[in-house]
Design goal:
Helix content is 20%, strand content 23%. The protein is an alpha+beta fold. The strands form three sheets. A three-stranded mixed beta sheet has the order 4-7-6, with helices on one face. A two-stranded antiparallel sheet has the order 1-2. Strands 3-5 form a two-stranded antiparallel ribbon. Helix 2 packs antiparallel against helix 4. The chain is extended and about 75 Å long.
């Protein structure tokens, strides 16, 4: 600790986000384009983070996924959470801190189990479809 000014004490140690760059807080404001992809948004988020998006078959397939409207504005979030949010649960995040590369691979999923049959006598709650209201 060192005194800085009259009433302020400052710890002389790097913050957690400075030591582990995946803990830095980011706010995503993707450029509003009609054809933005998930890979475009990932590159935008990584631009000033110190990391780069790696190239490869799995990562290149993110260029074919359109960016959902819900992902044009995100945050503030930790960098790791923002990357995982942009790709979704079907992708695993791989970080190489030595080369500062961020890669993604498809999650290998177990075969889907069939849904149980619906009991017609069960108490089921239904919701009506939303309709557009004109003023």
């Amino acid at each position: 600790m060192v005194r800085y000014g009259r009433y302020t004490l400052i710890e002389l140690a790097p913050s957690a986000a400075q030591q582990d760059l995946m803990l830095q807080v980011v706010e995503v404001s993707a450029p509003d384009t009609l054809h933005a992809t998930v890979a475009d948004a990932l590159r935008h988020v990584l631009r000033r983070s110190g990391y780069q998006l790696c190239t490869g078959q799995d990562t290149d397939s993110l260029d074919r996924l359109p960016l959902p409207a819900a992902h044009y504005q995100l945050g503030p979030l930790l960098l790791r959470d923002a990357l995982l949010t942009l790709t979704g649960p079907a992708w695993d995040l791989h970080v190489d801190d030595g080369t500062r590369l961020v890669c993604f691979s498809h999650v290998t999923a177990a075969p889907a189990r069939p849904l149980p049959p619906i009991d017609p006598d069960a108490d089921v709650q239904t919701f009506p479809l939303a309709t557009e209201v004109q003023p």
